[in-house]
Histidine phosphatase family protein (Saccharopolyspora karakumensis), 230 residues
Amino acid sequence: MSDVEYRQSAFTPPAGATDILLVRHGESAPAVPDRPFDLVDGQGDPELAPAGRVHAERVGRRLADERLDALYVTNLRRTTETAAPLAARLGLVPQEEKDLREVHLGEFEGGLFRQKVAQNDPVIQRMHSEGRWDVIPGAEPAEALRGRVAGAIGRLAAAHPDERIAVFTHGGVIGEIMSIASGSHPMAFLGASNGSISQVVVTAGRWIVRRFNDTAHLDGGLDEEPAALS
């Protein structure tokens, strides 16, 4: 009998790969009818709600001891505010990657999307059944969303070979990245919780899913609720 043993090996990123932690921003301020959110480049830009600031602090504590080579945010302030506690702990200045901003929701921008979701509006039902955002009048076409998200991830990977970065971004974008990486239905990964952490390892020819919607730091356990966009 041979004494040789072959243990299961731990995952090791391929040479030159970029390990990307995708952090969904903390809960943002509630939408109020007749008081639309301020817009940035036509997109709603709410600040974090008090609960979202708690999410940000817990993300900061969760990732404070991880080796992170860079932090990225979008041009929407809920990501910058969520990244702030971790940036302060690590002494890193977040860089902006505008093309990882949230899906443009057309006529449902400014907070109206949340109201339509709560009402189970027929347009929202059709959006989910067809897997396309642009059933909403004026919303971003699926092909445009995929193109800008894939381009942004490609740029970050090219800039950070053999490094780990944290990207503070949005639920629709995380869903799109996971869909690209896994080959899933376009909206199969919607609903990441506010403050959750997902992870992909990106090489020139392959995106590897390592985790989705990790909420261990949020004290919600397996009961942590998913959240709508914006």
Observations:
- The first strand starts at residue 18 and ends at 24.
- The domain at 18-214 is CATH 3.40.50.1240 (Rossmann fold).
- Strands lie at 18-24, 39-40, 43-44, 70-73, 95-96, 163-169, 197-202, 207-214.
- The chain has a mean pLDDT of 95.
